[in-house]
Amino acid sequence: MSEVLTLNRWPVKSLRGEQLSAARFDERGVAGDRAYALLDERPNRAGNILTVRQNQTLLSWSASYGDLPEPTGPPTLNGPDDQRFSWDDPKLADVLEQSLDIPVSLRAADGQQDRGPTVLVTFESSLRGLSEEMGAEVDLRRFRTNLHVDADLPPFAEQDWEAGATITAGEVELAVAGEHAGPCIRCAVPSWDADGRERWRELQTHLIQRHENKFGVIMRVTRPGTVNVGDAVRAG
Fold this sequence. Notes:
The protein is of the alpha+beta class. The chain has helices at residues 92-100, 124-134, 201-211; strands at 3-9, 18-20, 22-26, 29-30, 36-40, 48-49, 62-64, 76-78, 84-86, 104-108, 119-123, 147-150, 166-169, 172-175, 182-185, 214-223, 225-228, 233-235. It has two domains: 3-11 and 116-235, PK beta-barrel domain-like (M1 Pyruvate Kinase, Domain 3, Beta Barrel), CATH 2.40.33; 34-108, no CATH class. Strands 1, 2, 11, 12, 13, 14, 15, 16 and 18 form a nine-stranded mixed sheet that branches. It has a three-stranded antiparallel sheet with strand order 4-3-17, with no helix packed on it. The protein has a three-stranded antiparallel sheet with strand order 6-5-10, with helices on one face. It is globular. 36% of the residues are buried.
């Protein structure tokens, strides 16, 4: 059966996120996704968004709004020592600076901080295919997907999707349309495990050599609504 398997939201860019039972999809992408970011305030990078590529310790922190389809306030951050802070806590920037060992500031925005109002969709057949190629299970969390589906497609079929390709999940329709949309070219982040402890360099090398460094597809919402885990999926 073609269906939605998991829904994920990443409130703060490059921090661990949250798995949802339902999510709101609209002109922002997934509501609340990557709407917050940490800025690197080192003199040579001041004002740039801080990512896992610069500091893997970010993955020891997670952020959550709670299991709500649409956030009603800022996220809560959870640190590596069971620390818990609201985004609005005046101590948060100092605590993060101590944890990450670099100066940071906080930024909030109405929508995604990095690639515009898009949704990252991944496919179970491709995840299974990649695991088989690697000879080991590949954790989906490495790819920071929003919508993971079983769509009755052969492995890696989405790597050839072009403008106009669509997918329907429940009441929501997404399409390959606009800037940044199409097969997702991966950075080095998937080579890190979801908690930032170990690096699997062979995974990145394999993606480059076998799949042109692609995994998943970036899409835009063309019909908004709420998606639930278990909703029917149709691709084409």
